[in-house]
Every structure is written in C-alpha cells, then in structure tokens.
Amino acid sequence: MTDQITPVPAATGLATLSPSRASDFKRCPQLFKYRAIDRLDEPSTIYQARGTTAHLALQRLFDLPAESRTPEALFDLFRESWVEVRGTEFEGLFDSVDDERTWGVESLELLANYFSIEDPTSFDPLERELDMLVDLDGIVIRGILDRMEETPDGRLLITDYKSGKAPPERYALPAFFALKIYALLIRRRTGRAPDAVRLMYLTGPTVYEISVNDGQLDAMDKQLRALWSAIERAMERNEFPPRPGRLCDWCSFQDMCPAFVDQVVEVTAAAG
Ligand code: SF4
C-alpha cells in the first residue's frame, strides 16, 4: 500500500505527530507542549548518549554477515558510532577523559547483556530503523521503528530497544503505548498486523512482549483519534495542564513547570 501524505493540518499547526510525542501528551500535556509546540531544547545526558549510540550499534550489527555478529563486533560498532555522534550531538558532555572512559566501559557492559536476550546470528530482521510517515485517515504519524522481523514460527514481531531500566511488570503496560502505534502504522503500510510487540530493555536485561491483533489495533486507532482530538482542543484553548507524577524527577523542564514553580511561590509566600 502506498502511503498518502497530507498537508499540515491547519487546526493544530502540527505537521505530524510522533508516537513519542503522543505518549508525552498522554503522560503530561504540559510536557507535550514544551517538546512538540515550544520545541524547547533539552540538555543532553549521558543516558541519551548511551541510548543513541547503542541503537546505532545494534542497527549496524545486522549489516554484518550473520557469523560475524559477535559481542566484540558489537563493541567495535559502539566505539565507532560514539566517535561519529560525539562531536555532533554530545559535544562537551564529559568533564574528563576518565569520565568518558568509565561511561564507555559501563556502556559495553550493558551491550553485553544483549547477547543473553537473543542470538543475532540466528535471524535477519525484515526492517531496521524504519522511517515511517503514514496518514491514518487525517492523522499524520511520523516515527522510526527500531526493528521488525518474522519469527521461525511465522509471527510478525516489532521490537523497541531500550537502554534504560525496565519498569516493574505491573507498570509495564503504558510503556507499550508508542509501540502499539507503530503496530498500527505497520498494518496500514503492509496490510498485515504484527502478531506481537516487544520492549527489549538492555539494563537487567528485561524483555516484555505482548500479543496484538486486529481488534486491539482497531481499539488503538480509536484511542489515537481521541488523543488527537484532545490535542486539537488543548491547542485551540492553549490549555496544557501539567500532570505531576513519578517521571517528573527525570523531566528537563521541572524548573519552569507550573506544577513546581507554583509550589515554590506558595512556600515563599508562606515563609514571608
Ligand atoms: S515536571 Fe512533571 S508535570 Fe511538569 S512538565 Fe515535566 S512531567 Fe509534566
């Protein structure tokens, strides 16, 4: 099926919505505003640097012949990828060469976990870093899918690599939200629904996988449309309420977020 691309929707001013930004809005509309509307810069962290570099290395591992996909090859790819991205996205991230070296050693230890999850010599993915721009009947979604493959028993599986720590299993379901959108995009592009979606956390390591089917993806499609309507309403009214939660500790915008700035004002007023 050929993707249709529509012009920028005038009502929202958003050209496209990515699965990550859709997750942001669900999690905290204020966070969505900072990232998708205001497009504020966020300081790079060593965790982002590790994630970006590990993604590149894992993607390139499958460029090698199957028998060459060894831990040493993956470590070399990580080093090469880091040299590539260090000067562009992560300039000045480390205070010293020692700090960078420690980070590198920890990163390779993390990558070594990958080989306890799966054997990359045993399969060839159908897709890697698949850049998708898909019109879901009026909602234009753009995103890059880490990987898709067919398992030996014929199941279509899509995978998202995560370099961070996995949430406890009872909290894992919301983490699949973005991946289910990717499953929807794959169904639209290929006419075939993936059979399962998988989150591969290298820290641990931990792998979470859930089955999906056409009925679930239809429900996801409805949920996405409701979310899009909520985004349009929020933009028309310029109302993006903050929704404080566990993830605020990792939010780059806490210093300017009304949920936290207002608290500071109240404390100051009470103290005065
Ligand atoms: S600090 Fe918390 S409430 Fe504020 S924008 Fe970030 S995630 Fe949302």
Notes on the structure:
It is a single chain. The protein is of the alpha+beta class and 272 residues long. The protein folds into two domains: 19-36 and 125-235, no CATH class; 46-122, no CATH class. Helix content is 45%, strand content 15%. The chain contains eight helices and five strands, in the order αααααβββαββαα. The protein has a five-stranded mixed β-sheet. A hairpin with a 2-residue loop joins strand 1 and strand 2 (139-150). Helix 1 runs antiparallel to helix 2 (29-37). The longest helix is centred in the last third of the chain and has 24 residues, at 214-237. It starts with 18 loop residues before the first helix and ends with a helix. The site of iron/sulfur cluster has 14 residues, from helix 2 and helix 8.
Keywords:
272 residues; five-stranded mixed sheet; binds iron/sulfur cluster; alpha+beta; 8 helices
